[in-house]
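Q: I'm a student working through a structural biology exercise. My instructor gave each of us a protein and asked us to get a predicted structure, then write a short paragraph describing it. Mine is Major facilitator superfamily (MFS) profile domain-containing protein. I'm not confident about reading structure output yet, so if you can add a plain explanation after the tokens, that would really help. Here is the sequence I was given:
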Amino acid sequence: MGAEGTAPAAASKKQVAGVCLGNAIEFYDFVTYAYFAAQIGRTFFPTDTPGLSLLASLATFGVGFLTRPLGAILLGRFADRVGRKPAMLVSFGLMGFASLALPLIPSYAAIGVAAPVMVVLCRLIQGFAVGGEVGAATAFLMEAAPANRRGLYTSLQAMSADLSALTAGTIGLLLSTLMSDAMLDAWGWRIALLLGAAIIPIGLVLRRTLVETLHPEAAAEPVEIAVSYRRIAIAGVCLVAAATTTNYLLKYMTTYASATLGMTTQFAFGATVVVGLCGAICAPLAGSLSDRIGRKPVMLVPWIALALAVFPCFELLEQQRTATALYAACAILAICSTFASSVFFVVIAESLPQRVRSGALGLIYALAVSVFGGSAQFTVAWLTQLTGSPMTPAWYMIGGVVVGLIAMYSIPETAPVKRAARLPHGKEPVA
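A: Happy to help. First, here is the predicted structure for Major facilitator superfamily (MFS) profile domain-containing protein. I'll explain a few features afterward.
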């Protein structure tokens, strides 16, 4: 909780929407790759060995996480020294370039090995951009919010990411309904990616209107913080790692439903719609509730519910393998996961001073996501093939849940409403 002697810049609803739209576009392009991993694998990594092209595609998806820490360090420090606005413009521009280039790359059949090489380069640029985006955008939303609404404002970032997942899933569902599997492999997935790239100019225009929330004179003031950076960093990495494990496995449900459960592509894409819709609704509700009753209760209760729901949900899927079972399991897991994880970022951001907030938060996020998010889908797909057990994702997810519970107990309560209750009468909590 850095002492920031200046009031945050007032951000209009249009400017907050601009940050959220930019974040949504960036994550739309990133998650769309995951949703169409099977089709992209057959386009750029053709093979006669069953499952190998999917593993190659998921490995390339994981490559995008390698450059996230670099983006967090370089763009995060840029945001802490120069400003949140220029950092977000740079990250958005890089994402726009890579997102437009990837669906225009010819197939392996057309240009040979140059095709997968260019795909990898685009994924590296995307990872760098997202790594720099998260810290700057989260810092902006927290700093632009009234003290008693930080949870709500910061949760809008999670909501925008979930809306992007919902949009990508809806587009995937429509395309899979209107197209044959051969058409999806040939060019259907390209349409999905190009639709996201088409609105990039709107995001750039909106971001150019942002106010600047970084105040160098305030950031240079002494830091008043009750816990050490080391404790915050460790707990933060664990929190984000736990959220990443559950979130990326939920995004993997499309591939899991089709490749492991043998469901149709249309039904499989319906799972992404359910996950995105639940996340988009629950994120702002969780953020707003955490402003009223505190961060820790909103994190702990649904996360414990998630721990209890993981195995029953996957057992239901294994036994029934129907669309109803798939959507019900996805809804339960997404509601529990999103309600808790939407509060993680505001807790970490409130625990850091302004002068290092963007860079530190971005690096915490990038390290956790690079290690756990980048490997989650590939590892689960590989372990499922190795063991032949459809319950593999459940075991992987429960490991992340346990790590998250430990981190939640160790991190301090940061909600202003809770901190104010602990102060002597008449004193205000430090921002």
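A: Here are two points you could use in your paragraph. The chain has one domain: 13-417. The chain has a mean pLDDT of 82. It's a good idea to check both against the output above yourself.
Q: Great, thank you!
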